[in-house]
Amino acid sequence: MLKTNQMETMTTLDLKAVAKAYNKAAEKVHKRIVVCAGTGCMANGAMPVFNALRAAVEEAGMREFVELEMDRHDDCQVIQLTGSGCQGFCAQGPLVNILPEETMYVKVKPEDAKRIVEQTIVKDEVIEELLYKNPVTGERNRGQLDIPFYKLQNRLVLGECGHVDPEDIREYIAHGGYLAAQKAFNEMTDVEICDTIVESGLRGRGGGGFPTGRKWHLTRVEKSEKKFVICNGDEGDPGAFMDRSLMEGNPHRVLEGMMIAARAIGADEGYVYVRLEYPLAVKRMRKAIEDALNAGVLGENVFGSGMSMHIHIMEGAGAFVCGEETALMASIEGKRGMPMPKPPFPAQKGLFGKPTVINNVETLAAVPLIIRNGASWFNCHGTVNSKGTKTFALTGHVANTGLIEVPFGTTLREIVYNIGGGVTDNDGHVTHEGFKAVQIGGPSGGCLTEDDLDLPLDYDNLISIGAMVGSGGLVVMNKQSCMVQIARFFMNFTQNESCGKCVPCREGTKQMLALLDDIIEGRATEETFQLLEEVGQVVKLASLCGLGKTAPSPVLSTIVKFKDEYLAHIREKRCITNNCKALRSISIDPEKCIGCTACARKCPVKAISGDKKQVHVIDPEICTKCGVCFEVCKFDAVVGFN
Questions:
Q1: 489: confidence class by pLDDT, cuts 50, 70, 90
Q2: N- or C-end of the chain: fewer Cβ atoms within 10 A?
């Protein structure tokens, strides 16, 4: 692995020379073993796999790739063993990629390391049982070029995640890294940069979708001796991990995007605001900043331009509301993270009262690609008003969970059934008739149903049906999901995360949560349903910030799309999916009960009676519907549970 401190500090860094030297040394590598070292794979045991592979390489008498030792001439095979950022296929981790053959092994264990080296590295043999198995066709796919999950994506922003070592600045430079920043500082004016981003059609990927170039122009024209650029990495949506994966997998790309934004608006200082719950992202962003400073990419006289650029890391305390830009700036300033009314907008009066541009991680990661390849290259992807690609965190009842990137305009059907591999039941088996809904945009978004499967996903289409792209969370739900419970889950989240500054959000979300509890627990009336919708509209209209204004969206969306399910809870006191505990009707099937007494003996409240070898009965007045009887019955005689 390359050591940045061995690299000479260069104020006029020759990026092409660095790339040429690295690539020339890399030509001597016989095989490259890339172990996914994103958070998901790390949690599944990637480090023990990495260490086992290193031991197996040494045992086989091979030498690891270190650039500064490449002047040695011997017959020993050179192996480059490296960790990468998130490779996206989270459901199949830990992942191991063998290059240049593009062989991907999934769910690798440390005990697999020795045969991977002996068979694949030494003998070029493929280990079939370690390849991905398509859950529908049963076929084994050798690598990313064959696996539908990867093959059907268009990975522009995520292109280098999972391929480059995120802790190696030289490898990033070898892939064209920092050339766009060098071009922006040395060859372009601030107006030209902003105009290029406007022409590209790039819109904010954090949820609002505001045109990025326009935001930069608004900040650029402000007269101030000091300006700031902020990278918003405070990703708080349940099930969302797009920004985390980018910071972990390609931190230098994020820094390069910040540098270009700073050059465009006239800033010389920036902050990366990262959630405290993302320790690996924080670690890699810190190292990237340190390495960029050592290399002369950051600091004084950037690329010999006479301009300076310094970037700091700010760890947030985990408050969801700090994803809102005014609350985020208050947090950086050392204040409590609470939103402020706008105007003034951050472009006019932002961090420490100075003009400030705030973009989210994915937005900034797209910027170097646009500057390097041109606006027309970027805007040929996507739809008329939604250019480029979007990353989504695909989770829930779907076979292939993970991080994906598709062009705007891709349909939900393509994502769920082709990239995602289809909907699964509660046991994880693919089912062809199981799709019920997708929650898009997290707690700020809305629900999509079967009627929306062929809707091209972009900013405008989603807004027209009461949903939004949001930060990019996609939670797939099967027919066994209770939509009232789903609405309650998101409402509980936003109610807990409300900063409490404004009454509509603080009290309104609390009341909505209480009304949803009444529906789920069988206390609701028709008036409850009407009141829930009315309070939701008030919270939406009267709240101060984006969190409050969008907090009712999951509830209002499910009311529209699944009204019959709400009414069944209210009128019939019945949950059609049988998930709501208070509405379950528990009984014992007399045709199956043999009177073994197991249920009666285990019931914690003594609600079951009956003599031995006689049919037992459950007293509904006493039964707490805890499910113990269902679990202990060996004859499937207890009915009423899923």
A1: very high
A2: C
